[in-house]
Amino acid sequence: MTRRDELDDLLAKGRLSAPRRERIFEEVDRRIRRSRVSRYLIVAGPLALAAGLAMLMRPQSTESDRYAAKGTLLSHLELGCSGAELSHCPRGSKLIFHLGALPSAGFLHAYAEPLEAGHERVWYYPTAANPPPYVEPSAVPQIMGQGIVVGQEHAAGHYRVHLVVASTPLSREDLLADSMRNVVAAEVIEMVIVNP
User: Fold this and answer.
1) CA neighbor of 151 nearest in space, from 191, 98, 195
2) 3-state secondary structure the chain
3) How many CB atoms lie within 10 A of CB 108?
4) Domain residue limits, the chain
5) pLDDT in tens, the chain (196 residues)
6) Is residue 63 exposed (0-12), middle (13-18) or buried (19+ Cβ within 10 Å)?
7) Surface-to-core class of residue 79, CB atoms within 10 Å of its CB (0-12 exposed, 13-18 middle, 19+ buried)
8) Judging by DSSP bridges, how do beta strands 183-194 and 73-74 pair with one another?
9) Cis ω for the linkage preceding 126 (within 30 of 0)
10) Which fold has domain 62-194?
11) What's the gap between Cα 117 and its chain centre?
């Protein structure tokens, strides 16, 4: 004990002196703050680790990245199946193209890439009978035309449907090339064709 502590004890007349009480409170406060931080780390640490692992384990869409790498706007494009859900779209139903708010006008291009070996790519726009339709920018969602009938050219199986809106009409070769330009919006959507 220091001389100052002895003086404080004499003045306190056997009770706890004010300076000693303050030191005790400071020590208690320091210990409480330390335990709060350690409790926070015990809870937040594993949660952050789990969130990081979930992000790493999430499947990556390399097809959408192909368009994103060209500086395009993803989304605003959707696909529907008139006969059911896209996860179970029967032959004979129609594929309906939904366009959300597009930033500028362009031409809609679409094709389905089969995921199973032995199936062929199916082209919707452009084809000899169907050039890519022109779409105006709109603040409200719009539906393109009458839709496309899911016919015999679709073998039963899994497909990735590529929807691309470009400011100029593109050829099939342009759509498949890695150096595609003038893309306004693009999306890649999973679809499963089933027999009726």
Assistant:
1) 195
2) CCHHHHHHHHHHCCCCCHHHHHHHHHHHHHHHHHHHHHHHHHHHHHHHHHHHHHHHHCCCCHHHHHHHCCCCEECCEEEEECCECHHHEECCCEEEEEECCCCCCEEEEEEEEECCCCCCCEEEECCCCCCCCEECCCCCCEEEEEEEECCCCCCCEEEEEEEEEECCCCCHHHHHCCCCCCEEEEEEEEEEEECC
3) 24
4) 3-56, 62-194
5) 677 777 777 777 777 777 777 888 788 878 777 666 566 666 666 777 777 666 666 554 444 444 433 334 445 789 999 978 989 999 999 999 998 878 788 999 999 999 999 999 999 999 988 899 998 887 778 888 778 999 999 999 999 999 999 999 998 998 888 777 788 888 999 999 999 8
6) middle
7) buried
8) parallel
9) yes
10) Immunoglobulin-like (2.60.40)
11) 28
Side-chain half-sphere CA neighbours of 111 within 13 A: 20
- How long, in residues, is the chain? 196
